[in-house]
Sequence to fold (260 residues):
Amino acid sequence: VGINVGVVIGGQIADHISYRAVFFASALIIPLVIMFILFVIEKTEADSRVKSTEVSQQRAGGMSLMEFLSKPMVWGFFLLICVPNAVAYMFLQYTFLIVAEGAGFSTTDVGRSFILNGMAMFYLGPILYSLSVKKIGLKWTMISSIFMWSFSLLVFAFTGNILGAIITIFIMGISEGYGNGAVYIFYTDKIKEVNEYGVEKALAVNEFMTNIGLAAGPIIFGAAMLLGIRPGMLLIAVSMSVLAVIFFAMHAVANRKQAA
Fold:
């Protein structure tokens, strides 16, 4: 919510006052966030955090970070699901901004487009997630959300204009709100090594891998656009789907071995 609302407010300030004022506004907000963390979150979550740490320590079997990362299902999840999803998200933060600038969008117009993405994420996504989990289950919800990411990139690949880019980020918003919960629950509940290593530590590793994908996203999209919008976006979209299929094939094989 903060990211999407912040873009709109920042765009309005930049267009109607100055870019300098955006940074002054941020400087005023940051101390409020720090105060909230120190005097609200710490007091309300202290007990639950201690209990969670105790449970994680009981579950963790002394597995080291390198042992955790060496497990096929763990590195498979990061390389085939986590990092590609983070890379795809950077269409919004990188490629869309380039296309919007080329189309003559103002900072405020970009902010409005981000709000469209946020509305899809926070209103449509969770509704579809609840329905999907009930109808087709967690695994297929996650699979369908990844294919939705790929489909959104295909829309831009075959349009290549600002309208296609707006439709793409709208579909991405649905996919993110629809699939992120499924991805996190799958990671913590369906990959047994996560509980063996410790859920809190495993989530920290997942966050680190996500940041790697976010950092690599502009490089990958920049290289893709050098190939041309259509072939570049097609390559990323098809790669996401293929990598996801490989991961779920790995997961199916691992489950069969475990059952045997």
